[in-house]
Amino acid sequence: xxxxxxxxxxxxxxxxxxxxxxxxxxxxxxxxxxxxxxxxxxxxxxxxxxxxxxxxxxxxxxxxxxxxxxxxxxxxxxxxxxxxxxxxxxxxxxxxxxxxxxxxxxxxxxxxxxxxxxxxxxxxxxxxxxxxxxxxxxxxxxxxxxxxxxxxxxxxxxxxxxxxxxxxxxxxxxxxxxxxxxxxxxxxxxxxxxxxxxxxxxxxxxx
Length: 207
Known about the structure:
Elements: H1 6-37, E1 38-40, H2 51-62, E2 73-77, H3 85-102, E3 105-111, H4 118-124, E4 129-133, E5 146-150, E6 156-161, H5 174-185, E7 191-192, E8 197-199
């Protein structure tokens, strides 16, 4: 039997040790990510489960927004440096495309802390109007990235995330699309989508 090469044996041990350290590090990284970012949409603000509370909050928000110019509009809430944006981006693009096709306004609200980035963000996203809003005005908002849909009579027709799942990246936005299409066909009814789990950041952003 050929004797084991001590160098090969040491190298093999090193590989297994490195792999073990990598797996442990990965486990703790995933655990940290899930504990901080993966939770239900209303985890930090359970009052939004109540439709009356959500409607009242939206009425207050409307006083700080430009007057609606089209039959409906999509109001996206977006914190630029949120880690969850990468998973929600396909849904955000789809919602923007649908709004443009139906002739609806699409605005994106970002915290005032990021107002200096508006010109760059607007150049990257020409199909939405980007506005900064004082975080105190949205201090009660549960999470981002998320969306509101305002209907023809300034009624709140949708509230909730862009998509579900911790790492959801499929471009379909069936709920948002069906609501926008339903408004165009006058068949939509309000839909408050607050219970699913996903990847969310807080608003205002935590430092």
